[in-house]
Amino acid sequence: MAERVVIIGSGPAGWAAAIYTARANLEPLLIEGQQSQENFDLGRPPLGQLMITTEVENFPGFPAGNMEAYLQSAIDDSRKYMLPPHSGHGVSGPELMVLMQQQGVNFGTRVLSEDVVSVDLSSRPFKLTTSGGQTIEAHSVIVATGARANYLGLDSEKQFKNRGVSACAVCDGAMPRFRDRPLVVVGGGDSAMEEANFLTKFASKVYIVHRRDEFRASKIMAQRALENPKIEPAWNSVVEEVLGNDADGVTGVRLRSTVNENETTELEAAGYFAAIGHTPNTEFLGGQVETNSKGYIIWPVSHRTNTSVEGVFAAGDVADDHYRQAITAAGSGCMAALDAERWLAAQGIE
Ligand code: NAP
To answer: How much is the pTM?
Structure first.
């Protein structure tokens, strides 16, 4: 029998949609993604990008404070293995996600730990094929698969991946190879500031390589980075090549000036962290849902989560290349749940 609602993705948008559809007695099935090395390497782990971040200071409802006792009482013992040690200061990304997952499961969401590898949206019920070889039929689908970090696309980035090249300081920054060594972060947005600040815990110095002479990041995060004595910006520069060798992995970067094309410099560094934006996880849709030029799903009607395919809704970063916050993703997950519920009711599927 076809599912009434299938939610694909398990970040804040997916779990908000699950909580709302579960409470509407739609018995949602949430396909959370596989716990595979590939998903982690690509930056799309189950429970989403907050699993690879540290403190979340801007999700309302979690002021600074020690929530150890709350976490211990709210989270089932079977899920506690996913919680890193509590910092004593507000909520961390993994803590927030495991709390959302627990809340969704408490209301009866069923969870499948596989990836959706392809879909057939040409007729209803829709058909979803999973990495485990299952075909799931669904009257409605909420796509909440998020986005993943970009790399510059240099051959040398690929060559030294996991040997000094990373797109996630929080995942990899504490590795011994980065301790007390200079490191490079590329980008000028909030992610670059966050990664650079985080890396100063371990590194002797962190260079932020940015192609302009002003950061794109929010004022408070840019200021925090610029005031950090271990951080040094390399303005008006792009990384032309990641330098290294087989024995040591990354040993530095070669930069080219964006104001004087003939000028190159080399920085010694044991690590290279890309923080230059994201790509939405829409490949499995096979072009059946309309997207914009960057691949983000389009909402054809303002303030509605409907997509170009009737019965398919989208929520979170997969449809939002503008705000991309945990709170906006969760908000649009709620909207998608309400839109799906109303659409199902209009079809007589309750
Ligand atoms: P972003 O804001 O799009 O910034 C990407 C940065 O990478 C920009 O500075 C851009 O340079 C640079 N860049 C892009 N392509 C490049 C290339 N090929 N070569 C060199 N540089 C390149 O992305 P983000 O920092 O990942 O942030 C995305 C969203 O998440 C934002 O809305 C941000 O506020 C949010 N975020 C929030 C937090 C937080 O509040 N704690 C933390 C992280 C992210 P230009 O500036 O020249 O375009």
So the answer is: 0.83
